[in-house]
């Protein structure tokens, strides 16, 4: 949970520590820990820090002005890649140059034109033509126009050979709708107890491969590695994004995405200082707060209380925060980040006019505290298993999928179809059993001691799964179990073309063998089968795109 305050962003920690030292005088008696409601700490901390110089420095550090000089430098870096035939890296640089260029400038036109050259090389003629038209509609230098117009003619003539982008496939549809959970099959239910909190239980025997839930994200943010090729609003892969007109951070696949984002949360998000954008989870808490406060998105009124609705902010705000378990320093750090966000929002006239009573003010501080904690424990990393160059695409928050607890021998696994998440059974489940996913730690890959340490540190629980309880050996030390014919298992590596028939053949064979082998657990051959089953589902969800 505290990963985002640790190794990754020492700058945040350093600034918080300076503030903490400056404000320490006020918090000598462990005042933050004594609060009956931990979310009140934002009010307390804010009132002490907003006048401090370090706080003012943080707020002022937006460094996000559009600049033609920066745009020019980045475009020239792009030219270097282009000359070395590294078109994808060149394209990313040109997109960054587009984001940095001042509105309507010739630098913006130059960056679009250069990107159109990459798109032409990549055989993305439709996108190439769009960029050429964008460049021509701006202040594109006359002397360069003939070359661009020639490219336009060539792209027009080759449009029929346009490369198709099939990246994410549509998620499967729920077949037997759960009457109490809007995004789930009727094979599961939510239960609660003290030990596990809310958790998911099977209401019947469930077979390997069955879908349990299909959920759209409530809120997502794009990761740094993918920000120049994935839309910041819908996460779709896009090689010719357009920039936000105010900031250099946000890029979109279409006018619709740009205006939806701006009308909703982005007009505020745009103005936040740099420190809150160092980590995608930080970005998420601001976006989550703004989306949650957007009245047009509220669905609670129509939804009866006993139905779990994925699109309801009411459900998001119920997610785990572990706020009572925070020590003083953690409370201070969370409160500081929330205070920065609060301060920026309150400076915004349009925002203030909507939330101006004392009660609104206090509620906003409490909400920012909660959304920050929720965004640290609950998000799912969207990974690119078959994508061109980067592995991390985004972070997304799901109201229901966040309720699956962890096991180091999980019986379910999730697969991202873009920003949607599909959870499937990857080991057969008996009625009454808890359904679990892995929080990134599995018994075959990491030692018990390591798993326990990380789970305690990040998620504040002691794992009692069968691998932890019985101290199962890790991968190479496991017995092989019953022999399986391996010849039919083609390793579904990223380089392999998607072939539905072949994948289905592998899937069915693996499933049959799984039932012959499951009594040998734990063993290597069972893991091989489960890996291949998961790999087929990954392949189905997201196919490789080459530039
Ligand atoms: C993403 S939430 C999962 C849903 C959570 N149980 C709830 O009530 O909202 C993660 C938190 O669930 C709890 N949790 C997850 N797996 C667990 C397990 N195997 N045993 C006990 N608690 C677990 C921990 O408190 C953890 O921080």
Blueprint (SSEs and pairs):
Layout: H1 10-23, H2 31-34, H3 41-49, H4 53-60, H5 68-83, H6 87-100, H7 106-121, H8 125-137, H9 145-158, E1 188-193, E2 197-202, E3 211-215, E4 219-222, E5 242-243, E6 251-252, H10 255-269, H11 280-293, H12 313-316, H13 328-347, H14 349-354, H15 358-377, E7 380-383, E8 392-397, E9 405-406, E10 412-417, E11 420-425, E12 434-437, H16 448-459, H17 466-469, H18 500-517, H19 524-541
Parallel strand pairs: 9-12
Antiparallel strand pairs: 1-2, 2-12, 3-11, 4-8, 5-6, 7-8, 10-11
Helix pairs in contact: 1-13, 3-13, 5-6, 5-7, 6-7, 7-8, 8-9, 10-11, 11-15, 13-15, 18-19
Short description:
By secondary structure, the protein is of the alpha+beta class.
Describe this structure in words.
With 547 residues, this protein is α+β, with helices and mostly antiparallel strands. Helix content is 44%, strand content 10%. The protein contains 19 helices and twelve strands. Helix 5 packs parallel to helix 7 (106-121) and helix 11 packs across helix 15. The protein starts with 9 loop residues before the first helix and ends in a 6-residue tail after the last helix. Bound molecules: S-adenosylmethionine. S-adenosylmethionine is lined by residues 196-199, 319-320, 377-378, 402-403, 405-407, 459-461, 463. This is SET and MYND domain-containing protein 4.
Q: What fraction of the residues are assigned to beta strands by DSSP?
A: 5-15%
Which kinds of small molecule does this entry bind, naming each only once?
Answer: S-adenosylmethionine
Number of strands: 12
The Cα radius of gyration reads 25 Å
Tally of alpha and pi helices: 19
Give the terminus-to-terminus CA distance: 36 Å
Report the helical percentage: 40-55%
Strand line-up of the largest beta sheet: 1-2-12-9
Structural class: alpha+beta
Mean pLDDT: 88
Shape: globular
The biggest beta sheet is recorded as: 4 strands, mixed
Q: Regions with pLDDT < 50 over 5+ consecutive residues?
A: 1-8
GO biological process, one term: methylation
Domain MYND-type: 231-270
GO molecular function: histone deacetylase binding; N-methyltransferase activity; protein methyltransferase activity; S-adenosylmethionine-dependent methyltransferase activity; zinc ion binding
Domain SET: 179-440
């Amino acid at each position: 949970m505290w990963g985002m305050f640790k190794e990754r962003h020492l700058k945040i920690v350093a600034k918080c520590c300076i503030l903490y030292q400056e404000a320490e005088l006020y918090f000598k008696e462990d005042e933050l820990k004594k609060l009956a409601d931990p979310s009140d700490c934002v009010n307390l901390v804010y009132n002490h820090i907003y006048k401090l110089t370090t706080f003012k420095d943080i707020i002022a550090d937006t460094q996000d002005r559009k600049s033609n000089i920066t745009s020019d430098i980045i475009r020239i870096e792009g030219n270097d890649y282009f000359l070395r035939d590294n078109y994808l890296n060149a394209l990313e640089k040109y997109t960054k140059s587009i984001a940095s260029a001042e509105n309507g400038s010739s630098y913006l036109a130059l960056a679009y034109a250069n990107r159109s050259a990459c798109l032409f090389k990549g055989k993305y003629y439709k996108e190439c033509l769009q960029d050429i038209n964008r460049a021509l509609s701006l202040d594109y230098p006359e002397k360069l126009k003939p070359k661009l117009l020639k490219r336009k003619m060539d792209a027009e003539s080759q449009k029929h050979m346009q490369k198709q982008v099939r990246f994410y496939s549509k998620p499967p549809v729920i077949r037997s709708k759960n009457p109490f959970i809007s995004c789930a099959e009727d094979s599961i239910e939510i239960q609660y107890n003290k030990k596990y909190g809310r958790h998911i239980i099977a209401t019947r025997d469930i077979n390997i491969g069955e879908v349990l839930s299909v959920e759209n994200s409530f809120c997502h943010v794009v990761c740094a590695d993918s920000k120049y090729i994935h839309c910041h609003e819908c996460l779709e892969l896009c090689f010719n994004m357009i920039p936000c007109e105010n900031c250099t951070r946000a890029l979109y696949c279409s006018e619709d995405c740009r205006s939806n984002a701006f009308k909703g949360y982005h007009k505020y998000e745009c103005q936040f200082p740099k420190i809150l954008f160092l980590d995608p989870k930080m970005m998420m808490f601001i976006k989550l707060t703004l989306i949650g406060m957007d009245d047009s998105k509220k669905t609670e009124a129509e939804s009866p209380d006993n139905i779990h609705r994925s699109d309801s902010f009411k459900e998001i705000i119920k997610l785990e925060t572990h706020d009572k378990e925070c020590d003083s320093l953690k409370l201070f750090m969370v409160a500081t980040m929330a205070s920065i966000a609060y301060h920026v929002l309150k400076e915004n006239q349009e925002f203030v006019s909507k939330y101006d009573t004392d009660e609104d003010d206090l509620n906003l501080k409490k909400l920012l505290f909660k959304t920050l904690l929720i965004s640290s424990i609950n998000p799912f990393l969207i990974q690119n298993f078959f994508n061109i160059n980067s592995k991390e695409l985004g972070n997304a928050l799901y109201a229901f999928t966040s309720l699956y607890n962890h096991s180091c021998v999980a019986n379910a696994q999730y697969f991202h179809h873009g920003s949607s998440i599909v959870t499937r059974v990857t080991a057969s489940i008996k009625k009454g059993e808890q359904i679990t996913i892995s929080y990134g730690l599995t018994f075959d890959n990491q030692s018990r001691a390591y798993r326990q340490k990380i789970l305690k540190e990040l998620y504040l629980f002691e794992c009692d799964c069968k691998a932890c309880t019985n101290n199962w050996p890790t991968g190479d030390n496991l017995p092989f179990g019953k022999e399986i014919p391996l010849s039919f298992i083609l390793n579904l590596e990223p380089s392999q073309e998607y072939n539905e028939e072949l994948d289905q053949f592998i899937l069915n064979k693996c499933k049959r063998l799984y039932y012959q082998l499951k009594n040998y657990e734990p063993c290597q051959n069972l893991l091989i089968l489960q890996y291949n089953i998961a790999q087929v589902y990954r392949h189905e969800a997201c196919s490789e795109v080459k530039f």
